[in-house]
Amino acid sequence: MYIPKRRSSLSQEINSHEKVFEEETEESQHIGCYLCTKFNNTRRRSSSSFKVGSFIDSLLIDRTSASKSEPVTFKFGILVTDFSYHIRKGGQLPASGNTKRVEIPFDVQYIEWSNASASSTLPHPATGGSTGGSSFSSPLVGNVEISKRYASYTSKQFPGFSIPYRSVLKLSIENTEGTTISICLLEYDLSKLPSGHKRLVRFKSNSIVIQILYFHLNKKFYVGDTARIVLLSKEEGITTNGEVIVINESKFDENHYKKCDRCQPYSQG
User: Fold this and answer.
1) Domain parsing of the chain, residue ranges
2) Cα separations (Å) of 223 from 37, 39, 113, 158, 226?
3) Could you tell me the pTM of the whole model?
4) E-assigned strands of the chain?
5) Are 170 and 79 a contacting pair, CB within 8 Å?
6) What angle do CA 163, 227, 152 make, to 5 degrees?
């Protein structure tokens, strides 16, 4: 009788950012399009509870063994802010580039790990107040479904926020009171990103981590799919400087964002 070897816990740990974000567990299935997999519960998630890679990685991919707070709605703002940079670098401003700021509501939650021996608690990142009790509270985490905003359109902008291939993105976060608690400036250059490919980028500072996807599709460029956000700051504050890391570049299936046999809203586009 053949008995498969049990993998060690070390071999099961995923350390690469690419694998953490891009690969699905064996229990997951890719069925249908972006709307199906994101919003119709046809993609099953692994039921195992564990932390993968670093603490930030665990929060970004939503794989922790902790309980979550009730969601609170924040606003994510995105704007192409420095067209002069684009032109100085020799680019011509494409008509597809957005010049207006777009706001997208999204839910954030904080996560608590029970720790009876804890002598103190972290302040709630949204209010600055203590969460109380004998537990440590994580930073606020949330996912911004950028492509969902455009999915109901048959517009040419789908699958995301249209941008020139080279410029500066201004990303902002507003809390429930409408106060801007974070601003991030991301200089980018997609001139070497092949058509039909996507680039996963992470902006990291001492107060916020934002992970976004750039797309190159038919000579047009987008920010789309899901932006993943971790608010690290214990107090309200504005951040404009940070480190930008290219995590991964890979091909993507255009039909995953444009066509589906089940989803009528944009199967016609």
Assistant:
1) 21-258
2) 19, 19, 33, 10, 9
3) 0.67
4) 67-68, 72-80, 102-114, 135-145, 160-163, 166-174, 180-189, 197-204, 208-217, 220-231, 243-251
5) yes
6) 70
Token pair of 198 as six digits: 């996507």
DSSP 8-state secondary structure symbol assigned to residue 94: -
Q: What angle do CA 55, 57, 60 make, to 5 degrees?
A: 115
Over the stretch 2-40, which tens digit does the pLDDT of each residue have?
555 555 444 444 344 444 444 433 334 444 566 665 544
The more confident residue out of 221 and 11 is 221
**Closest by Cα among 108, 128, 138 to 234:** 128
Lowest-pLDDT range, 51-65, 81-95, 149-163, 185-199?
81-95
Query: Taking the CB of residue 206, how many other CB atoms lie within 10 A of it?
Result: 11
Highest mean pLDDT among 1-15, 40-54, 244-258: 244-258
Instruction: Give the dihedral of Cα atoms 64, 69, 74, 80; nearest 10 deg.
Output: -10
CA distance readout (Å), 142 to 12, 72, 120, 199: 26, 10, 25, 20
